[in-house]
Amino acid sequence: MKVVICLNTAWNLVNFRAGLIRALAAAGYEVVAVAPYDKYAAGLKALGCRFVPLHMENGGTNPVQDALLTWRFVRLFAHERPDVYLGYTVKPNVYGSLAAHIFGIPVINNIAGLGVVFGKSGLLVKVVRTLYRLALGCSVKVFFQNGDDRQMFVAGALVHPEVTDLLPGSGVDLSRFMITALPSAVTGVKKFRFLLISRMLWEKGVGEFAEAAKLIRSRWPQAECCLLGFLDVQNPGAVSRAQMDILVATGVTYIGTSDDVRAEIAQADCIVLPSYYREGTPRTLLEAAAMARPIITSDAVGCREVVVDGVNGYLCKVRNAGDLAEKMERMLSMSPQQLTEMGLRGRTKMEAEFDEQIVIGKYLDAINAVKQLKSNQPRELFHKSSKI
């Protein structure tokens, strides 16, 4: 069987879906990875798959561009004729699924967060909901990363409830993200590093993090507040380079990007994500918890799944820099031993609930179910003839 897996960046494929791609290849599937080309595409071959570049405007809402993207998906499927399509992120989930349905290709979707659009009202939201309803209406499986998103889609009649299932986020590779000692516990130096890891979007709480850093600086001069992630992403809520320069001038440190986030997590004492973006389940929080880092994150959809307040971290109020600063001060007031124990409780939670093997197992089960169904029906029922 041939499996096409599509995301909005090759970086995303390499960093977040490597385990699944390896598992599919090891199970004997031919895997075709599809995404816009970037420098990370070269690393996909080593995972056991073939890469096909597909141009898409990730941050745009131009209907002409989206129609062209749908046509590109149609041409892709006409050429590849996969046995199953795995869609992630908004445009592959919507336009990729619509194109796959034309050919009767079974579709498995992953709804990994809804952004800020679903929290608003207006024509754009109505259009997005209609597109999701059309795209998911014929899918054989739709995975969600938290119960809130699944309930919203089911209640809004955007998806048939019987095809839905929950995943523990993207899962985390526990053999790769290992327990590491806190820097403050190892060195004995009083310096304490808070680290926010994400795309640099205002909706991720970047502004609140910078404001909280200002609030605690006078009382806690040893606190270092750092940002790690891509600037200038294709998103209207992106932090520009000029805006980042202003934030840096107020006292935060912008580290840039990293090809191995483990090294940056290892140098942090606490990971912070005060997001009000409607997350699926943030992968960075899972990776941080797996490395036994205490976490501060917002009491919001997706984020709250990772943290039990007061156990492996703290939940802060959404869009509230003062409450975030108060939670950061709690962390600063704890002893290295208390922080270590809090981080280890996070690791235990990851082992029990968020192991990547749980995610991979559910995908293999879903694809095997498609395989069984296809073996009992003529192939042309799944692949409608076309001369496109």
Could you explain how this protein is built, in words?
With 388 residues, this protein is α/β, with parallel strands linked by helices. The protein has two domains: 2-171 and 355-381, Rossmann fold, CATH 3.40.50.2000; 183-353, Rossmann fold (3-Layer(aba) Sandwich), CATH 3.40.50.2000. It contains 14 helices and 15 strands.
Q: What overall geometry do the principal axes of the alpha carbons give?
A: globular
Bin the strand percentage.
Answer: 15-25%
Q: N-to-C terminal Cα separation, in Å?
A: 22 Å
Tally of discrete structural domains: 2
Strands, total number: 15
**CATH architectural grouping of the largest domain:** 3-Layer(aba) Sandwich
Count of DSSP-assigned helices: 14
Instruction: Kindly report the average pLDDT value.
Output: 92
Largest sheet: 7 strands, parallel
Query: What's the helix-strand series?
Result: EHHEEHEHEEHEHEHEHEHEHEEHEEHHH
- Write down the Rg: 21 Å
Give the uncertain stretches in residue-range form.
379-388
Structural class: alpha/beta
Main-sheet strand order equals 3-2-1-4-5-7-8
Helix content: 40-55%
List the helices and strands and how they pair.
Layout: E1 2-6, H1 10-16, H2 18-26, E2 30-35, E3 50-53, H3 63-80, E4 84-88, H4 90-102, E5 107-111, E6 113-115, H5 123-136, E7 141-144, H6 147-155, E8 164-166, H7 183-187, E9 192-197, H8 206-217, E10 223-228, H9 241-249, E11 253-256, H10 261-266, E12 270-273, E13 278-279, H11 283-290, E14 295-298, E15 313-316, H12 321-333, H13 336-353, H14 356-375
Parallel strand pairs: 1-2, 1-4, 2-3, 4-5, 5-7, 7-8, 9-10, 9-12, 10-11, 12-14, 14-15
Antiparallel strand pairs: 6-13
